[in-house]
Input
Amino acid sequence: MSQGGWSDVGRMDELGRLATPVHRVDARAKLVTTGLFIVAVMSVSRFEVAALTPFFLYPFALLSLGRIPPGYLFKKILVAAPFALAVGLFNPLFDRETAAVLGPWSVSGGWLSFASILLRFALTVGAALVLVACTGMHRLCAGLEQLGLPRVLAVQLLFLYRYLFAVADEGARMLRSAELRSAGPRPLRVRVYGSLVGHLLLRSLDRAERVYRAMQARGFDGEIRTLQRPRLRGTDLLFVCGWLAFFAAARCWNLAGLLGTLLMKGAS
Amino acid sequence: MTLPAVELRTVCFTYPDGNRALDSVSFRVAAGEAVALIGANGAGKSTLLQHLNGALRATSGDVLIGGTPLTRESAPALRRAVGMVFQDPDDQLFMPTVFEDVAFGPLNAGLAPAAVDQRALAALERVGMSHVKSRPPYKLSAGEKRAVAIATALALEPDVLVMDEPSSNLDPRGRRRLIDLLRSFGHTRIIATHDLELVVEVCPRVIVIDGGKLIADGPTDLLLNDEALMLAHGLERPHILRHRHPH
Output
């Protein structure tokens, strides 16, 4: 019936239910840490590409400890990549002054800032995706609410995510039926797509209404309740403090440079 | 006299677009009774069901659950007494796992965590689905989804079970299991369906509606055997009754 459409979006939910040390960390602790991570990454100046590299430790640590398949997340990052490319595309054209010299090559400031934009994009989007994958949307929204996000917004976010399934599902089925009836040489016309989108909206509204009624029938009153009443433990605080210290260190000192010098010293 | 579990008093309902979906419908259902609601497509069955938990409110007339009129104020409390099983289980199952879905109602009812766990497990046990409790609902087969959807309603320990097309999309084995399950319940049951053979097996009483009006209300054997009545309202005399001989 609706297996196809659900399967890929549902993968995120499946990952969110794994039982690893990372999944057990309280949603609030992960939210705060990821927020601070994004701030730290964005605060790096646009010519310091090397300073960004130590930050990759955070998403990769969560990824491997949380047993999230990297290929799956990488594909998800690629989906959003065109936006970052569009933002940084003109930097190499406008800024041609040499900013760094790597052996025989001189690198212009434009290319450096372009690389920096791409790296920062990969880091922030990657960290956000890892956060969802190793927390699960439901716990994440409950965590956001406990952190003080107005309940209306937290519920909106949860619904947006839930209805994403419904809309993707309806869309896939409609597109399939349209394709089945347009086997000729002419591709689907724009007018057909317009009508498809209109119908999709109406159908999704209908389904959303039914899901809401089903929730209401079981006493939903706007508050998200979870089975385990989350309590912050010592390990959660340790998680936040530990990563915070690492982000601070990565911002203050050039960790990549230090490592390089250490290695060079060892070699000589 | 004990109060009827469900009572409708001249209920009328008109959709905002002017479509009159229910026209002075009145009936009473006693506690523990199993009643089938039958009628052609668009007869008003689903609209009627939605009145039973206050999802839709009658334009005029009253809906009483256990003797209490269903109003905007009383609806939240009465919803706990009326368990709804929707036509499409995908609309009803929206939590990450089966267990969380079944626990959703009791959690909203404000039960303590231990009581929530116990209720959810008992409900899953009752429909024979405790082995899928940690699976995501969208991975289940249609039959399993239906059973879990019924468990989500049972977990609230309702007095009345209201079901919309419970046997749609089920394979014969799933349908057989469903029928056995429905027969085993002691709840008051109101089942809207086109599956007339299921009606014969589960419900001793039938209510026929057409064009929003109550056409007939009586014993299943009598009404379903009335070929003229059945054909006049888009239904048919079920095979199971054609071959049943009185002994």
Chain A has two domains: 1-149+230-258, 151-220. Chain A touches chain B at residues 1-3, 6, 10, 13-14, 16-17, 136-138, 162, 165-166, 207, 210-211, 213-221, 223, 225-229 (CB under 8 Å).
